[in-house]
Write a structure and sequence with these properties.
Blueprint: H1 3-37, H2 44-81, H3 83-102, H4 114-141, H5 144-171, H6 177-199, H7 204-222, H8 229-239
Helix pairs in contact: 1-2, 2-5, 3-5, 3-6, 4-5, 4-6, 4-7, 4-8, 5-6, 6-7, 7-8
Organism: Brugia pahangi
Pfam families: Talin_IBS2B, Talin_R4
Domain Talin IBS2B: 79-227
Length: 247
């Protein structure tokens, strides 16, 4: 199954999780009201039945809470567990882009120009740095669901980055393809190490160091292009990325 398919499955699990979580509060309130009502029910058999069914519902809600907590943990793990597959897939895609460009077989996306490709690369580079920084900051907050959501955003930004690399290689003739692809692969590999460190629950220093290395790789990748206003602005913003909190 492709990484997109796996992310789709994670999305379905998250949707089911949130829909189930919505039931808890009103159902819990129903149990409370039922228990409060039992003493005022005149018919004894009805009161006994109401007490019994409310107790059953209370037990089932407790089981649902446990299941939701387990699902929450599972969703977090799933969102990070497939990061290695993602990095491998993107790396292979970059290799193919480089090979096709060298052989003159790379075709630009309809409507894409050197200018739009450069703008997309600068934007996606900023997004990669930003989303990885957010993911590391989420670790500090201790919110595992936030970490998982940030991981998905980081994965999407890496895909956009690789797409932008394709655009550069297919539209610009003033870029040394070999050097550019090597630099782009470094971005992907170093981003993968950030995922690894998060999954391994590394120290704050290790997470920060991994994130800083991505910023270095992004700057090196952008430097492969002749200076443009878009690139200079992106480089300046990437240099400013900082992890906002400590673990």
């Amino acid at each position: 199954m492709s990484i997109l398919g796996k992310i789709f499955i994670v999305g379905i699990h998250l949707h089911s999780y949130f829909r189930s979580a919505l039931v808890l509060r009103p159902a819990t309130r129903l149990v409370e009201v039922a228990r409060q009502t039992v003493p005022s029910v005149p018919e004894q058999h009805v009161a006994i039945h109401l007490q019994s069914t409310s107790q059953q519902l209370s037990t089932q809600l407790a089981e649902l809470r446990v299941a939701l907590n387990n699902a929450k943990q599972l969703n977090f793990e799933m969102q990070l567990a497939h990061s290695e597959d993602l990095i491998r897939e993107l790396d292979n895609e970059l290799i193919e882009i480089g090979r096709a460009a060298q052989n003159g077989q790379l075709t630009a996306v309809p409507g894409e120009s050197a200018e739009t490709a450069s703008s997309k690369l600068a934007s996606s580079a900023r997004q990669v740095g930003s989303t990885l920084t957010q993911m590391v900051s989420a670790v500090a907050s201790g919110d595992r669901q936030h970490v998982g959501a940030s991981a998905i955003e980081a994965a999407q930004s890496l895909r956009t980055f690789v797409s932008a690399v394709h655009g550069i290689c297919s539209t610009r003739k003033d870029t040394t393809v070999d050097r550019f692809i090597v630099s782009a692969r470094s971005v992907v590999h170093d981003s993968g190490r950030v995922f690894d460190k998060v999954r391994e629950q590394a120290t704050s220093q290790q997470l920060n160091d991994a994130t800083k290395q991505v910023a270095v790789s992004l700057r090196q990748c952008l430097s492969c292009l002749p200076d443009t206003q878009h690139v200079e602005r992106a480089v300046s913003q990437i240099k400013s990325f900082r992890v906002s909190t400590k673990i």
